[in-house]
Amino acid sequence: MLWQSSSTPDFMDNRDIVLSIDELQVPRLSKIICTINSRTATVEEIEKMIQAGMDIARLNFAYDEAEHHLQAIANIRKAVKNIQSTSETHVDVAIAVDTKGPEIRIGKLEGGAQVTLIEGKTLRLTIDQAYINKGNSSVIFIDYEDILEVATPGMKIYISSAILTLDWIEENDILCTVLQGGVISSYDEVTGEGIFKLKTELSAIDLSHIEMAVQEHVDCLCVTHTMSQDSVLKVKHLIKDCGGDML
User: Fold this and answer.
1) Which of 63, 139, 161, 173 has the fewest CB atoms in 10 Å of its CB?
2) More confident residue, 75 or 15
3) How far apart, in whole angstroms, are the C-alpha atoms of residue 222 and residue 213?
4) What is the per-residue pLDDT across 81-111, written as a single tens digit (0 to 9) for each?
5) Which residues, 6 or more positions from 230, have their beta carbon under 8 angstroms from its beta carbon?
6) Residue 191's beta-bridge partner residues?
7) 50 φ, ψ to 5°?
8) Distance (Å, rounded) from C-alpha 94 to C-alpha 79?
9) CA separation for the pair 146, 194 (Å, rounded)
10) Phi and psi dihedrals of 174, rounded to 5?
11) Hey, where are the domains in the chain?
């Protein structure tokens, strides 16, 4: 709210003036970005967020399957349409897609539950796709095929609060000992010294997600951990090839 000060000129009659920002038609310059996840992707929840002031709906492609994000995009647009049909106020909500980037993550744990890793126990990290949705306390999928080329005995690997040490390398697996136990969840990030040596900035998954985002006509594309001009140019060319427009 704005109040007239004691120095208001006489031509304003020295009246107390109380004007709202809306009455002054001052635009709200700050924008609110909300990440839509599996628990908030319903039309009803999205409508509530829009009414509360959400300007941009962000979808993080590092999590969940493509089908989930496609449904979320449809729900966002339906929520906007619902609000516009019941209100005279224009609603404009942008959709932003955040790519996975050169992250390394574990797969889905069985039942979607958390798993507790016990100190001293052996854990097998595998690139075998058969375990992508079947992780447990003994074997967990890791979405980094090149890890077998960069892995060396003694390397420390971190998953959430757990710390592993690499003991042995097999055809599709690396065997580790749990140095420090901890609770891990589906799709937790994996880090470790030297582990990104061969990890490319734009993976096949990233490129497929960008293509899907363009085909769905999203408003904003956030390319995670982009570290070179070549990657930016590659994204621009891909957007153009998919029929998208660059502002």
Assistant:
1) 161
2) 75
3) 11
4) 999 988 877 888 999 999 887 778 899 999 8
5) none
6) 158
7) -65, -45
8) 12
9) 12
10) -125, 135
11) 25-101+203-242, 104-192
The pTM (predicted TM-score) of the whole model is 0.63
- CATH code of domain 25-101+203-242: 3.20.20.60
Domains 25-101+203-242 and 104-192 share a fold: no
pLDDT in the model for residue 198 = 53
Cβ count within 10 A of residue 43:
16
Convert 117-134 into a string of H (helix), E (strand) and C (coil): ECCCCEEEEECCHHHCCC
**What is the per-residue pLDDT across 184-239, written as a single tens digit (0 to 9) for each?**
999 898 888 766 555 556 777 888 899 999 999 999 999 887 767 888 888 899 89
- Using the structure block, give the residue that is written with the tokens 């016990």: 118
Sequence-distant (≥ 6) Cβ neighbours of residue 220 within 8 angstroms: 56, 94, 95, 96, 97
Beta bridge partners of 125: 140, 174
Q: Tell me: the pLDDT tens digits for 157-172?
A: 999 889 998 898 888 8
Long-range contacts of 169-175 (CB under 8 A, 24+ apart): 172/126, 172/127, 172/128, 172/148, 173/124, 173/125, 173/126, 173/127, 173/128, 173/139, 174/124, 174/125, 174/147, 174/148, 175/122, 175/123, 175/124
CB-side neighbour CA atoms (13 Å) of 225 = 14
228 Cβ neighbours under 8 A, 6+ residues apart: 201
pLDDT greater than 70 at residue 151: yes
